[in-house]
Amino acid sequence: MAQPLMPHATASWLVDNTALSFEQIADFCGLHILEVQAIADDTAATKLTGRDPIRAHEVTQEEVDRAQADPNYRMQMTKGPEQVRRTKGPRYTPVSKRQDKPDGIAWIIRNHPEISDGQISQLIGTTRTTIAAIRDRSHWNIANITPKDPVTLGLTSQRELDAAVNKAAKAAGIEQQQTDTRLDGDRQALIASLRAERDQAARDAENIENGYDEGATARPAFEDPFRR
Questions:
Q1: CA angle, residues 103, 105, 108, in degrees to nearest 5
Q2: 209 vs 33 pLDDT, higher one
Q3: What is d(CA 131, CA 106) in angstroms, rounded to the nearest whole number?
Q4: N or C: which end of the chain has fewer CB within 10 A?
Q5: Contact in structure between 93 and 155 (CB atoms under 8 Å)
Q6: Concatenated DSSP letters for 62-110?
Q7: Residue 122: in which H helix or E strand, if any?
Q8: Buried b (16+ CB within 10 A) or exposed e, 158-176
Q9: The pLDDT value given to residue 222
């Protein structure tokens, strides 16, 4: 269900300016009834400035009047205009992470030179001028830039980075990196060793169960203590 843009401020206004029940206000604003009670009793953490939902075109006066006349009625929010969403332009980066952008750019340039400046701009949310300055080491802070994985820095996701790398590699005609097989020999030797240990443990368990200790002289399961 749609809710007011500022539910607490709207609830404060409805408490002060209408005869709606706390339950009706809580339902309309998407709050718990105890939150509305706290607002009415001025025990909320901060004193809220009321926001008129009628002037904000979130509900009509007719809806308010109808709800005041019937405590069981639940007000319906007026559908407002669709919000304009940003679809173009560089990716938004929080202020706290913007200082990490040069490090992320430097990491991509060093580890994936096949990625174009345009792709880096989309991944990191920066300008081509900044990328070019880091690429030719003319950036004003180049001495303090340390290449760091942009995924670790939170500038992009691993999926987006992988997609950009694959796209750039395909465009450049670069074959995808093959699986590293340098450790295959060690891996196989480790597997063989573990299997040998497992088989030996199984044999030892079987020998113990049968009353036989490998490497020792075979003995009967029972020895007569009176036998000489």
A1: 110
A2: 33
A3: 8
A4: C
A5: yes
A6: HHHHHHHH-TT--PPPPP-PPPP---SSSPP--HHHHTTHHHHHHHHHH
A7: helix 117-124
A8: eebbeebbeebbeeeeeee
A9: 53
Helix axes 7-17, 33-40, angle to 10 degrees: 60
Question: Hey, what are 201's tokens?
Answer: 């443990």
Residues 6+ apart with CB under 8 A from 190: none
Q: Are 113 and 168 within 8 A, CB to CB?
A: no
Q: Are 100 and 93 in contact (CB under 8 A)?
A: no
Candidates 37, 35, 20, 26; CA nearest to 4 is: 26
- 6-17 pLDDT, tens digit each: 888 899 899 989
* pTM score: 0.41
pLDDT tens figures, 72-87: 999 988 865 455 455 4
